[in-house]
Amino acid sequence: MNFTSHVDAVITVAVSLVNTLTPGAAWGRDYQPPTGADLAEAVTAALRKGQPAARTVSSSEAADLAGTAAELRMVFDAVHRGDVDAAASQINALLAGTGARPQLDRHDGEPWHLHFHGSTDALAQGWAAGCATGLAVVLGTELYDRLGVCTAPRCDRVYVDVSRNGTRRFCSVSCQNRVKAAAFRARHGEAVG
After folding, report:
1. What is the DSSP letter of 85?
2. What value, to the nearest 5°, has the Cα angle with vertex 66 and ends 25 and 56?
3. pLDDT tens, residue by residue, 77-127
4. List of long-range contacts for 19-24, beta carbons under 8 Å, 24+ apart
5. Residue ranges making up the domain that contains 91
6. Which of 39, 119, 127, 183 has CA 20 to 30 A from 56's CA?
7. Shortest CA distance to 141 belongs to which of 84, 100, 75?
């Protein structure tokens, strides 16, 4: 399941920002996001998942995007709870707060395609507007339930299910394997005992 190349890129960045910059549990362990000098490096890496040529971000831009990640997290959590109205309200607040606006752009030899910009050219606001608009595109379709939170124990990382059948339940193969191994051990232990 693909939306458009730009929508896919901003959704990828939204997921990466949430997973990198929000506390909780990840892959069976407590997770705390990076701080200090590591924060800017982590945000730069998150942005490069959707735009490989993204420039290195400053500390203040990283802090701004950490705030955005917390707001984006609320969208995934609301969808996970089955509260699409709350997810849509959160996205609408982000769209209004960033002054998100669509614009046709052409670059790098590509044809005209839709990009999303903030009300200013500031990097953090632009990415916040883009991520919010990308998630709005998903929420505005019958595919909204493709936004997910990992169902593995002690993991609350998020994902967007782009599989054909829409049955993804885990943020990563690592979590899927942990759950399968635990189920195998449980079955094996019951058979022995």
Report:
1. H
2. 115
3. 999 999 999 999 999 999 999 999 888 888 778 888 788 888 888 999 999
4. 19/157, 19/158, 19/171, 20/45, 20/46, 20/69, 21/46, 21/65, 21/66, 21/69, 21/70, 22/69, 22/70, 22/73, 24/156, 24/157
5. 5-146
6. 119
7. 84
Query: Which pair of structure tokens corresponds to residue 134?
Result: 């990308």
Specify if 44 maps to a domain.
yes
Domain count, the chain: 1
Please report, as a single letter, which amino acid is at residue 6. Answer: H
Token reading at 51: 């735009």
Quick one: pLDDT band at residue 140, thresholds 50, 70, 90? very high
Indicate yes or no: pTM above 0.70: yes
Flag whether 139 is in a domain: yes
Banded pLDDT at 177 (limits 50, 70, 90): very high
For residue 178, being part of any structural domain is answered with no
- Kindly compute the dihedral angle of the four CA atoms of residues 75, 79, 81, 86, in this order, to the nearest 10 degrees: 60
Half-sphere exposure of 69 (CA within 13 A, CB side): 27
Output the six-digit token pair for 56.
């290195």
How far is the first Cα of the chain from the last one, in angstroms, to the nearest whole number?
44
Whole-number Å distance between alpha carbons of 169 and 166: 9
CATH code assigned at 24: 1.10.3300.10
Residue 190, pLDDT score: 63
